[in-house]
Amino acid sequence: MGEQFKQKQIPVPSGLSEEQVNLAKAFVKERHETGISVQEFCSKYGKSTKTFYEWKNDEKFESYLTALGGTIVSDDEREAYQIVKKKIMQMATKQNASVKEIELYLNTFSYVVEAEKQERMKELGIQPAHEKAGENKTVEERKNALIGRLTATN
């Protein structure tokens, strides 16, 4: 089975700058390919770690990072995750299950776990912050919608 990556466009949340979008894409790609740390990434791109962590505290930016990460998870990785997930559940029911083995897997494949969480949230009808309805509308579109609601009630 060859690596097949899901190619889909992630809508950019309103309020993110072009710099944030470009750095988010670069960070997700490099984190996946090389495991680069936030500090190394910020140093490479001339950004302070303080600024990057402030961005990560923004729900929209963090959700966008997570969604981007989900797009680069290959089918092979998802399949391996499912196999190991079953193995972990089997291990967890045994008395000799090692916490370190479970933690190692979860730490190594946390991006796969996050991608799966995003999919489950969508199945439950919970939208990630970067996809919330109306967030990508222009000010003019929002104004017209508000005026429409106000005039409809009078």
Walk me through the structure.
It is a single chain. Mean pLDDT is 79; it is low at 1-7. Among the domains are: 18-69; 75-129, no CATH class. By secondary structure, it is mostly helical. It is globular and about 65 Å long. The chain contains eight helices and no strands. Helix 4 packs across helix 7 (110-123). The N and C termini lie far apart (61 Å).
Number of strands: 0
- Helix coverage percent of residues? 55-70%
Number of helices: 8
Strand proportion = under 5%
Distance between the termini: 61 Å
Order of helices and strands: HHHHHHHH
Largest sheet: none
Global Rg: 20 Å
Show unreliable segments: 1-7
Q: Give the overall silhouette.
A: globular
Specify the structural class: mainly alpha
Please, what is the average pLDDT? 79
Organism: Metabacillus sediminilitoris
InterPro entries: Homeodomain_phBC6A51-type (IPR024978)
Pfam families: HTH_Tnp_1_2
Protein name: Homeodomain phBC6A51-type domain-containing protein
